[in-house]
Amino acid sequence: MKPRMPDQQASLNILCHSNIPRRSEGLRIVDDGPLYGARLVAMRRFLRGDLILRLRGRPAVPSFRSIQVGVSSHIEGYPFSFLNHSCRPTAIVLTQQLEVRAWQELKIGQEVTFFYPSTEWEMVRPFVCLCRAPGCIRYVAGAKYLSPHLLGHYFINPHVRTLAAAALAQVAAN
Ligand SMILES: [Zn+2]
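A: This is the predicted complex of the input protein with zinc ion.
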């Protein structure tokens, strides 16, 4: 659940030092220290479907803090790079609209999370998930490593579907 340490701590320190506000559009970055890292928390109530955040970022090489928004495109930026993974996420990332929307009602203080394989095909830094949600996938490495059946239980972005279909076609051809 807290995979992005310790580098995220370093990036948070950089953000603090560059005077970027820690509050943004009803959100706040909460830093739980080196062990648990930083997380993005709702500072107001969001109803299911509400726009939480727009993905305003810059093109980036894949990293632990980037989000994949197309078959071969990745972006990173503030504050969405602080979104943590959950197997029972409170939000979804819509890569075509470049939006983060509430997947369930979020109360003040609740963490904004999304399901990383919904955007990431193959992650640079896989990790073991400790979210303890029912049906936790445990090994979070990208959609490439999940079965089509399992992916069917989640909201998945079009570019990931495209990559999954291509992978299946390749298996069928061999
Ligand atoms: Zn999990």
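Residues 7-173 form a domain with the Beta-clip-like fold (CATH 2.170.270.10). Residues 158-173 form the longest helix (16 residues).
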